[in-house]
Prior knowledge:
It is a single chain. The protein is α/β, with parallel strands linked by helices and 485 residues long. The protein contains 17 helices and 15 strands. It has a nine-stranded mixed beta sheet with strand order 11-9-8-7-6-5-13-14-15. The protein has a four-stranded mixed beta sheet with strand order 1-2-3-4. A two-stranded parallel sheet has the order 10-12. β2 and β3 form a beta hairpin. It starts with a strand and ends with a helix.
Amino acid sequence: MAEEKENIKPLKIDKEKTNFFRFRKIPGGMLITNDFGGHAVLSDDDFSLFVEGKIETHHPKYRELSQAGFIKDDLSLDMAINLYRSRNSSIFYGPSLHIIVVTLRCNFKCVYCQASSRPEDAEGYDMDIDTARKTVDFIFSTPNKRLDIEFQGGEPLMNWPVVKFICEYVKEKEEETGKKACLSLVSNLVFMDHEKLDFFHKNMVGLCTSLDGPEELHNLNRPCPGSNSYRQTAEWIEKIKEEEKKKSESGVAVFSLSALLTVSRHSLPKYKEIVDEYVSRGFTGIHLRAVSTLGDARGSIDRIGYTAEEFIEFWKNSLDYILEINRKGTLFVERGSAIVLKKILKAMDPGFVDLRSPCGAVSGQMLYNYDGKIYTCDEGRMCPGDVFAVGNIGEKNHEENYSKIVSGGKTKAMVISSTLDNTPCDYCAYKPYCGICPVLNYAVYSNLNPQMPETDWCKRHKAMFDYLFEKMQDEKNLEIFKGWI
């Protein structure tokens, strides 16, 4: 049994009958969880009966507690092992997400830019064909047979020849190795044209853009010098959606366009307008992402940032509004919540590298910069000084290079600093669903291992978990959540 420190009370635990658990007081009762992902919410009286081993087989909660692995007499060791393995399956297969920065140049001047993008006319910030070929060769030398390759920038369409080359070369490598790769590209869409769009659709390349809400807010967060960034992006969202509809009606499969939101201070009072913008544009979900303190965003965080409490208020208001939309018959998903709900309700690893223990750095994702440097993760390239650079694509033997990176000191430091066991997080009821980002810790606190309960990351996620469990006590909300996953 592990207790959260704010809830420490002397308990008379019957350790012969009661299996290991963590607990936390939430609205509606006492939440208990275990390492297999099992959970239950008990009344105060039932919680007392449970810890004292007095929950009998006829009790209304007995079956639920038994199936969730809280009753020792009923615990199947094989089941527990399989559940634990399933929840941590990502650590067995090697990195699946491979991010390629084909250029650092960008035509936007986003107020929260994490990538420290360079001006549109800057020189020396584009990946060349030779580096691109070596990057793809390296990616296919990694052990995972299912690969997700994502183009990022800057603005990746500003280096279209290399994007096109990589897409075509990946198809060759699939034939050669028998591995499968899913391609996607993150773009502001300004440099999109019908030729590129047709290429992406034919090659099953998923597209993702950034949409921060209605026109005024989007332009405030994502200015494009000399033009209206919202109108340019919105115009291509509409064109792509129309093309998707045509192809769908004719039986041709394409990936649906998705969009990303970054919440700045300007966004906080406009939660309804933001959600309405996504719904009106035909998107089926939104990910309410807090602004980060990485890259150029560090210099503007005093102007665009907020407290953990302010973000949580925005997030709760948004989630309530999204649930209201769902209750009226429109399926619309808050994707950050859906990630957590998969862990809670399906006891599975949804593949989200930021909420894993250890985190996904190197073990789940790797990033390849325009200059051939390899980083632990997307966030790793955003810290100055190459602190999280782990290798270079120029090494001749790719398998040997990968082995050296995986066993290197930086990778080990990332694993150690993001593993929740034997840390203050080990006491938390939300440990089975949470994770740590060492890069963000280093950027904010100059320390891979800060006191996590004092960080904004912990405050935000703990409040989000609290609210989701509170909402799940309502059967109508629970049915909506199940539909999301």
